[in-house]
Structures are given as structure tokens and as C-alpha cells.
């Protein structure tokens, strides 16, 4: 239980400070609701959950890196820019993966509803 305390403190902090993380969480809840409505199978759930988790993990690491950089310097520094930009790129790549998974899983299901 003691080892869970710190991750939950991190969760509380990121939910209260990072609206991007909250947006990802809310989007995930909507996607999961659609998953139940469209009766996804096991493999489809696996892809959906992997996409959700990858985005949330990378958004959390992105926030941690941003805070680390801000701790080191508030001044403009090219290396600080590189770290933040690369970290943002990692989140963007995860989001692209999530969109591809979402389209490939949900579009055939939605088309199936009309056939
Ligand atoms: N110390 C710095 N030195 C150089 N460039 C910086 C620095 N801090 C931020 N930047 C640039 O500004 C961009 C935005 O940084 P910022 O810390 O505001 O993150 P963000 O993407 O707006 O995330 P959030 O909205 O979660 O804070 C970075 O991607 C980087 O290009």
C-alpha cells in the first residue's frame, strides 16, 4: 500500500495540473463507452487498451520531463527546447497510433451497424 501512495500522489498532481492528461482520460472514457456499445471482441479491446495506456504513459512522462526542465532552468536554452519538443513528439506519435487503432477498430463496427 505504501508503494501505491506515490503513484497516486502523481495521479492526483497530474489530474489537477495537466489538462492534456485530463483530456486524454476523458477521451479514453468515451472510447471505452463506445467499445461497450459496439460490443468489441477480445483482440479489439486489447488494441484499444494498449493505445489508451501508451498515450497516458507518454503524456505522464512528457509532464514529468517538462517539470524537470523547468526545475533545471526557466531561461531559454536550446537543449531545454530539444527535450520538450522531442517529448511532445513522443506524445504526438502515441496519439497517431491511437487514432489509427481507433479508426481500424471502430469504422468497420460502425459500417457493420448499417449492413
Ligand atoms: N526553457 C526553455 N528553453 C527553450 N525552449 C523552451 C523552454 N521551455 C519551453 N520551451 C519551448 O516551448 C514549448 C512549450 O513548452 P511548455 O513547457 O509550455 O510545454 P507545453 O507543450 O505547452 O505543455 P503544457 O501546456 O503541458 O505546459 C516547448 O516544446 C519548447 O519548444
UniProtKB/TrEMBL annotation:
UniProt binding sites for a divalent metal cation = 66
* Active site residues per record: 59
List localization entries. Answer: Cell membrane
Which BP terms does GO give this entry? phospholipid biosynthetic process
What Gene Ontology terms describe what this protein does at the molecular function level? ATP binding; di-trans, poly-cis-undecaprenol kinase activity; metal ion binding
The superkingdom of the source organism is Bacteria
Task: Write down the InterPro entries for this protein, in alphabetical order.
Answer: DAGK, DAGK_sf, UDPK
Name one matching Pfam family: DAGK_prokar
Gene Ontology cellular component terms for the protein in this record: plasma membrane
Per UniProt, the cofactor note for this protein states:
Mn(2+), Zn(2+), Cd(2+) and Co(2+) support activity to lesser extents.
Q: Which residues of the sequence carry a binding annotation for ATP?
A: 66, 75-77, 84-85
Q: What Enzyme Commission number(s) does the record list for this chain?
A: 2.7.1.66
Q: Which cofactor does it need?
A: Mg(2+)
| Positions of transmembrane segments | 21-39, 45-65, 86-107
**Is Glycoprotein there in the keyword field?**
no
Entry keyword set:
ATP-binding, Cell membrane, Kinase, Lipid biosynthesis, Lipid metabolism, Magnesium, Membrane, Metal-binding, Nucleotide-binding, Phospholipid biosynthesis, Phospholipid metabolism, Transferase, Transmembrane, Transmembrane helix
Which amino acid positions bind substrate, per UniProt? 59
Entry membrane topology: Multi-pass membrane protein
Q: Which PANTHER family match?
A: DIACYLGLYCEROL KINASE (PTHR34299)
Record's family? Belongs to the bacterial diacylglycerol kinase family.
Protein name, per record: Undecaprenol kinase
Q: What is the lineage of its organism?
A: Bacteria, Bacillati, Bacillota, Bacilli, Bacillales
Whichever gene encodes this chain, its name is dgkA
Amino acid at each position: 500500500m505504501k508503494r501505491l501512495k506515490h503513484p497516486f500522489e502523481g495521479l492526483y498532481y497530474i489530474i489537477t495540473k495537466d489538462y492534456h492528461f485530463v483530456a486524454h482520460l476523458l477521451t479514453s472514457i468515451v472510447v471505452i463507452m463506445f467499445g461497450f456499445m459496439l460490443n468489441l471482441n477480445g483482440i479489439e479491446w486489447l488494441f484499444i487498451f494498449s493505445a489508451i495506456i501508451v498515450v497516458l504513459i507518454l503524456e505522464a512522462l512528457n509532464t514529468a520531463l517538462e517539470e524537470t526542465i523547468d526545475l533545471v532552468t526557466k531561461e531559454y536554452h536550446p537543449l531545454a527546447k530539444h527535450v520538450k519538443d522531442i517529448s511532445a513528439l513522443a506524445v504526438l506519435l502515441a496519439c497517431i497510433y491511437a487514432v489509427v487503432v481507433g479508426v481500424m477498430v471502430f469504422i468497420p463496427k460502425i459500417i457493420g451497424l448499417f449492413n
